[in-house]
């Protein structure tokens, strides 16, 4: 295994300069740092963690704390994102330590891990409305990056999608097809993304002069059962006029909606159009639905590389205000959406 002296001899630089370059010290120029990093990779250099921590005060280890759920062992999305994020961090010479939160206080596990003085920072996931974790960590000067955002104007580093636009784009598509009675099956209201999507849905419906009956906005766990139960209630017509289109928070929810439509003898998209948000879940391909599902598309795993890169930059001193990215999800139109049924083409005008 190569040493600092080997890199020093290779480049004609002092051992001190090589060490500072590899440890992110700001006095080393970008060109020199790049030369040193390239040589380290070429020669197979791996830092001694103990020596690195003595030199920089950093361990090369970051943490992520996840809330324990009954269905966690069967959640393929969680493991897909976790393994991808671990690989992206490892490629940047950071190790990820995972801990499970089993309590009611969302900041307690972070306080416990900070007491052990083992971590350089955190990756935060599943932001909630009014989430106390960012404020807790910022008050203690702990670097972190959040997947998504819990605040409209956050003062911390984050990477996420524009959840308001997810609803706006879906409503715009359906309105262009003449749909008026559009229902929303949203995510669980405790999560910030769900609040953003409902706000986007209501704003887009108002902009299109479509009314939103109270019964046409519902929420629940992101499961096929949630989609089936809610769609069966709406589409039976027992509670009033049924929706001609349904927006779904996830593809599993959409699977439940399609099954309910089939059980009631309704055709998709002839009687009902269905749009879902697609996180590109393992083994659930929206293009393979029958009919193929129209989606807003933003794979969760695609967030892992930017999150890892942002955390590295933040640890190296880049201010949080320069590490804030919101991406717009793509819109993929497939066979599950079509014109509103005959006689249903005209919008409900807002009184």
Whole-number radius of gyration?
24 Å
Treating each run of at least 4 consecutive H or I residues as one helix, how many helices? 12
Task: Calculate the terminal CA-CA distance, rounded to whole Å.
Answer: 75 Å
Structural class: alpha/beta
Strand order of the largest sheet: 2-1-3-4-5-11
The major pleated sheet works out as: 6 strands, parallel
Overall 3D form = elongated
Strand content: 15-25%
Average pLDDT metric = 90
The parts where pLDDT drops under 50 for at least 5 residues are 346-351
- What's the order of the H and E elements? HHHHEHEHEHEEHEHEHEHEEHEE
The total count of strands amounts to 12
Helix content: 25-40%
Task: Give the helices and strands, then pairings.
Elements: H1 4-11, H2 15-22, H3 30-43, H4 49-56, E1 61-67, H5 76-91, E2 95-101, H6 108-115, E3 121-124, H7 133-139, E4 144-147, E5 157-161, H8 163-176, E6 182-186, H9 192-207, E7 217-219, H10 224-235, E8 245-248, H11 251-263, E9 273-278, E10 294-297, H12 304-315, E11 324-327, E12 330-332
Parallel strand pairs: 1-2, 1-3, 3-4, 4-5, 5-11, 6-7, 6-8, 8-9, 9-10
Antiparallel strand pairs: 10-12
Helix pairs in contact: 1-2, 1-3, 5-12, 8-9, 10-11
Q: What features would you describe in this structure?
A:
It is a single chain. This protein has 351 residues and is α/β, with parallel strands linked by helices. Helices cover 39% and strands 16% of the residues. It is built from twelve helices and twelve strands. It has helices at residues 4-11, 15-22, 30-43, 49-56, 76-91, 108-115, 133-139, 163-176, 192-207, 224-235, 251-263, 304-315; strands at 61-67, 95-101, 121-124, 144-147, 157-161, 182-186, 217-219, 245-248, 273-278, 294-297, 324-327, 330-332. Strands 2-1-3-4-5-11 form a six-stranded parallel beta sheet, sandwiched between helices. Strands 7-6-8-9-10-12 form a six-stranded mixed beta sheet, with helices on both faces. Strand 3 (121-124), helix 7 (133-139) and strand 4 form a beta-alpha-beta unit. It is elongated and about 80 Å long. The termini are far apart.
